[in-house]
Amino acid sequence: MALKPAQLAWEETLLRERLKFVKELKAELQQPDGAAAQTVQAYTSLIDEVIADVALEVHRAVQTGVDDLSDVQHRLAAAGGQPPAPALPPLPLPVAKGNMVDVFGNVVPPVALDQVACPNCNRKVAAGRFAPHLEKCMGRGRQASRNANKRLSAMDM
Ligand SMILES: [Zn+2]
Description:
Helices cover about 55% and strands about 5% of the residues.
């Protein structure tokens, strides 16, 4: 459909006005102390801060196991974002199997290794193995009572 000359003239005027506005805005933005440049800079730092907050929150949730990376991608897609790029490579496991990691990424041994002196025999025992040692050492607990039963039944014979 062809435009009438009056419509064309109106369109040209509109485009020239818009072009003029863009040129004025560009000139204002090129003055670093101007209100326009300062406003854009303030908004930019606000948006950067919000993005960093969200990124840190998601990172922390995924690292601590509160959230799952595939769940995050699913929610992003559901919110109208771009569907995730085909199959992100899986994140490497933080450490080898069997080791635990605290929230700071430090490796935590599966058994507490601090040395504790046994009050009964004075031997040094790893803190994680102190309870079973004390059970045996003091002659209390399940194993000790089993041993006592064995001794009793042996005496009966
Ligand atoms: Zn002991």
